[in-house]
Automatic annotation (TrEMBL):
One Pfam family named in its UniProt record: Cytochrom_C_asm
Primary localization: membrane
Keyword Membrane: yes
GO biological process: cytochrome complex assembly
GO molecular function, one term: heme binding
Name by which UniProt lists this protein: C-type cytochrome biogenesis protein CcsB
Protein location: Membrane
GO CC aspect terms: plasma membrane
Length: 331
């Protein structure tokens, strides 16, 4: 096919993937909505058993056609499981279309597809989906589906509506194989930062719910389906520990080497370079605090969330709002 045809295919696949991700998001939202109204059943011993007038349990645990809370809760749980599975399947479908859109964009431009803000947006959001789906297989992170599909659909929608740039040649500064190494590492680590940030947000929600239970309160069924707060804290650490060395190499090693090739200096305190360093410092503080001061839980989660927002500002704000050598990334 010609580059023009590849471009047309990409321009069709990316919006289609956006719609599929959005539908997956709705499915996961239904899962959470069902959980908010589900009947809380603390244990089998505490299940309500309706007894017939002769002292024997009523058939099916019901009387006068009214289902017991345990039966009602089981039905809602089944519907929540179905919504979760549908959301995950749709995420896989969206990912396949998304991947096809990124690949055909590269074929249309006859280069790697991350030479401008539009291309980096569709590639970075693809990295978020990849990291999520990999960790779903390894750590059963399907409970993160609502946050991930929301982020990916939002980024793709913004890219299609506000950042789209026709496929074309790279600006001279981008003609280097270090571009491939630098941006690929930044995109993958950025995807991991996003997943880690979302896990940290849900950690705070789950930890608060657990404290309410200890004080005698109840927990919604959707939150009961999440792992324990302690397990989520460990998951966030694993994701961010994977991302940090990749960011270090891709941004603070490959990036300066590329800068020397493109501009004749390794480091020039360009706004993008400064905020990349700030991002590195925040995540270094996160890992250092866990390793030396034993920070766990809430304090670590807050640092991880701050790091995610710093990364987002570095990704969006610096490119679009601040003038510098990386300003071409916003066109």
């Amino acid at each position: 096919m010609s580059p023009e045809t590849y471009a047309q295919v990409s321009n069709l696949l990316i919006p289609t993937a956006t719609v599929i991700y959005a539908i997956a998001m709705v499915s996961h939202a239904m899962e959470w909505a069902l959980g908010r109204t589900a009947v809380a059943v603390k244990s089998e011993v505490q299940d309500q058993v309706l007894v017939a007038s002769d002292g024997t349990p009523a058939a099916g645990g019901t009387t006068d056609g009214v289902e017991s809370p345990a039966v009602e809760n089981a039905g809602r749980t089944a519907r929540m499981d179905a919504a979760s599975r549908i959301g995950l399947l749709l995420t896989w479908l969206g990912f396949v279309l998304h991947l096809g859109g990124v690949v055909t964009r590269g074929l249309a431009a006859e280069r790697v597809p991350w030479g401008n803000m539009y291309e980096f947006s569709i590639t970075a959001s693809l990295a978020v989906a990849i990291v999520y789906l990999v960790f779903v297989q390894r750590y059963k992170l399907q409970w993160l589906g609502l946050g991930v599909t929301l982020v990916v659909a939002a980024v793709l929608g913004l890219a299609s509506l506000a950042l789209y740039t026709p496929a074309g040649p790279l600006v001279p500064a981008l003609h280097s194989y270090w571009l491939v190494i630098h941006v690929a590492a930044a995109a993958i680590s950025g995807g991991a930062f996003t997943v880690g940030g979302l896990v940290s947000v849900l950690y705070l929600v789950k930890a608060r719910a657990e404290r309410k239970v200890l004080a005698g309160g109840a927990m919604s069924a959707s939150l009961r389906r999440l792992p324990s707060a302690e397990a989520m804290d460990g998951t966030a650490y694993k994701v961010l520990a994977f991302a940090f060395p990749l960011w270090t190499f891709g941004v603070l090693v490959a990036g300066p080497i590329w800068a020397e090739y493109a501009w004749g200096r390794y480091w020039g305190w360009d706004p993008k370079e400064v905020w990349s360093l700030v991002t590195w410092v925040v995540y270094a503080a996160y890992l250092h605090a866990r390793a030396t001061a034993g920070w766990r839980g809430r304090r670590a989660a807050i640092i991880a969330i701050v790091g995610w927002f710093v990364f987002i500002f570095n990704f969006v704000g610096v490119n679009l709002l601040v003038s510098g050598l990386h300003s071409y990334a916003g066109v």
